Amino acid sequence: MYVSYFTQIAILAGLYFFTGKFGLTFDAASGFATLVWPPTGIALSALLLFGYKLWPGIAIGAFLVNFLTGAPFLAALGISIGNTLEAIFGAYLLKKARFQKSLERLRDVIFLIVLAACISTLISASIGVTSLFFAGIVSFSTIAPTWISWWIGDMLGNLIIAPVFLVWSNRPRAKLTSAQAVWAVFFGIVLIFVNSVVFTSTFKIEGYPILPLLYIVFPLLIWVSFIFGQRGTTLALFALAFIAISNTVQSLGPFAGQKLSRSLFILQSFLGITSVTFLTLASVVSERKLLERRKNEFITVASHELKTPITSIKSYIQILQKHLQNPTKKQIASSLYFLSQVNDQIDKLTIIINDLLDISKIQAGKLELRKKRFDFDFFVKNIVVNFQHSTDSHIITIEGETKKKIFGDEYRLGQLLTNLLSNAIKYSPKKDHIIVKTKSYKNVILVSVQDFGIGISREDQRNIFEPFFQVRGKKEYRIAGLGMGLHIASEIAKRHGGTLWVESAVRKGSTFYFTLPLNSSSQKLYRSYT
Ligand code: ADP
Question: What ligand 1 atom has the least distance to the C-alpha of 509?
């Protein structure tokens, strides 16, 4: 559905305004710093999902909600700038960290917590409170509590609201089966019921400040994380926050106290820690499931890859057996051909088995390097010439030279370059040119292998260096492999103090780069080069 740019801005500004107005009703410190501030999460998700261009929606929404609540013009303007910068900076930090919205990896949850929830929110709290101070709304003595309320309110926006938008904007991996859908509805009802009971009850054991009923929430959230992953968890956390806050403001439930701002402060600390805990748990569960799925896929592909050469070897041997019983001259000639085929198939098996052994060495941290000093240009030429002998389909050209000797494991570096060359050929079936470029800088050698083939999408570029990862593509591009080569190659580069990375565009081709240090400080130079 097409929605024009101005309509998108108007929708964002409207959402920001109304959720902000709602947040400001909760006994905000100094009238503006509220502990419940959903707009922060909405703003961050909007910029991450639709791009920075929507920033005016945040600026307008934030200005109006504060101005119409009574903030002087300049103070409302200051607050609006702070809120807009907070969202832009949060989105920028997450994009830089190559954050994935599905929150299915632990690192993404940690990025959301640290970069967006904790760091970017410092901007809005600081600029907002400063604006209120200069407008005379916040006195010197109330700066600290106002700032803390502001920060916590924004933080919770990013911990509870943003995850719902971010996670649910992704297409689900698999549709729920009808049995799972029934379970989901059942869990939803139980969660709402239990939360409603917990947050309306003030059941306490006399003389003890502990609220035993509150803990019932945890096993439920654990189940949700295990069974429904981040999709279920983000919704469950949202429901928990909604029920908890709406009851606490009505002076109900375990967090209700004499002063609403204090009750909310304790409640928000509880909600913050709960959401950090369960977002983390759900991501770890998803990572485990992903690994399990990859392992299963790997076993299927590996057994197929191992079986194919074995089946061929067996049939060649059967033919050879027949031929050699009473051989004619012609049969002896063809037997030699079959023997060379057997040899080729055994080579294929050896490569697969060596890769498997390398992966297990890498995972055990036992990939050893036998380093010596050797001429790099000669080494590259040697590998390329040898490789060229084994292929008629592509022409490989070398551009540039390094005129350097390097200290490294010649065998492993050969494996790295060969892997890039064989991928370049494998994944450019309709093109016939591969370019290998080498260049030396003061402390580092840069090598690139460029093909003009099928390319790799941005999404897949993030994963191709992981063990056993293979791009799932159209059938025509499904090419035999086990997804081990690039992981091994990148480990070899890393073990030499270098880095391997890719730049690629779908249907235009890929260029894989790797650096090798000429001395230990070269990593810095590599960074300044890129
Ligand atoms: P394999 O090639 O055995 O599947 P790799 O680890 O070498 O495993 O590569 C992982 C994935 O990266 C491949 O499945 C392929 O989809 C993608 N890939 C690697 N090199 C290229 C390339 N030059 N062009 C396009 N895709 C590539």
Answer: 24
Which residues are CB-contacts of 425 (< 8 A; sequence separation ≥ 6)? 391, 393, 394, 434, 451
User: How far is CA 482 from each of CA 297, 299, 479, rounded to the nearest angstrom?
Assistant: 10, 10, 10
Per-residue pLDDT averaged across 452-477, rounded?
81
> Which range (19-33, 115-129, 367-381) has the least confidence?
19-33
Find how far residue 196's CA is from the centre of its chain: 35
| Ligand 1 nearest atom to the CA of residue 486, by list position | 6
CA–CA distance, 188 with 181 (Å, rounded to integer): 10
Per-residue pLDDT of 488-519, as tens digits, reads 999 999 999 999 999 999 999 999 999 999 97
For 300, the 3-state DSSP assignment is helix
Q: Using CA atoms, how far apart are residues 382 and 184, in angstroms rounded to an integer?
A: 60
Which pair of structure tokens corresponds to residue 265?
């402060």
Task: State whether the beta carbon of 486 lies less than 6 angstroms from ligand 1.
Answer: yes
Compute the distance from residue 480 Cα to the ligand 1 centre, in Å: 10
Q: Say yes or no: CB of residue 335 within 6 Å of ligand 1.
A: no
Which of 422, 471, 506 has the most ligand 1 atoms within 8 A of CB, as the residue to mutate? 471
Cα-based torsion angle of the residue sequence 382, 384, 386, 391 in order, rounded to the nearest 10 degrees = -170
- Buried/exposed 270-282: b ≥16 CB within 10 Å, e otherwise: bbbebbbebbbbb
CB 254 within 8 A of CB 266: no
Res 210: pLDDT: 59
| pTM listed for this prediction | 0.74
Mean pLDDT of 181-198: 92
